[in-house]
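This section describes the prediction task in plain terms. A model, or a person checking by hand, is given the sequence of a single protein chain and must write out its three-dimensional structure as a string of tokens. No templates, partner chains or ligands are provided. The sample shown here is typical of the held-out split.
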Amino acid sequence: MKTLSFLVVLVGLISNIYSYVIDNKYYPQYDDSETINYQEIGYPEVEVVTGPKHFANKEKYIDVLGTIGNYMKKYYPTIKYKVTETMDKIDFARVRMVQMYNDIEIKNSIINVDVDPIKGNILETTVRVYPEYEADEFEDRGEYIDEVKYMFEYINKLFYDGKLDLSGATFMYGSNSIVRNVPFNNPRVTRLYYDFHETGLTKVYSKAVWEFEFKSGLNVIKVYLNDKDGELLYISYYSTASDVNVGKEINFDSLLITPTTARPLPPKALKTTTTITKIIPKYNIRTTTTTNQIPKATTTTSTKTIPKTSIYTNHRYQYYYHY
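The expected answer:
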């Protein structure tokens, strides 16, 4: 069975997080971000929002998100963004955001803002945004789940010789990213804009990209495909295990699960009766006892055999530390 081999370098011993990438034509492009400590140079002017939307439901706090919204309008008026995480650090509130393009996240962007939750001062920012961002739009292939199925077939062809049945794919209830009814452990699918550069070149390409995230135990593998033609752009592998061995081999077979289908229970059994008649002396009374004989219900399961995969091995692999 062919496998993908990853060379492991043991670094980041504190976090025990490792990342590996395929040495392909493209690599993610991360420009320098700008960090400004306003506590050293003076707080920027910003209209502080108070009122009922207290951060972390603490009445002594201001409306942090509203205040940051005013900050973004004043200093980054052309940037569309989305809040991805808020954290109450006691001494300050931290809000993480990403830049949006056509209502889709730009993967390479960073917008982190630290705020005094009581006074409303902007304490520190770390920003990497693209004011004049341009990229191809995603192809319109119908309903979103149909688009996911379409792109999933590239995964099927690349790593499983097209032998997997993905026709029944659907989203988990209440989600538009977690996929069910496929032979994987709840893979997550996301559309992104992602900047790449070619190996050895400085030219940067802004691409419409599909991210497929697969989990297996403590391991996470992310596969990035070009929306336009399904080209394999980038693969990363993460592990939180502290005992990662040098030369450990990872293959896509390890991501597969075997779906088990429970067949319907048999039809409700007909009632059969057995009559036992007792004659009580003198009164000649007949008594009848009826017993129901219902056969035990049996449940059978059928398992779907998933073919072994053929993996492309015409790539070199090298270590890339993710932070």
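For orientation: DSSP finds three helices and 21 strands in the chain.
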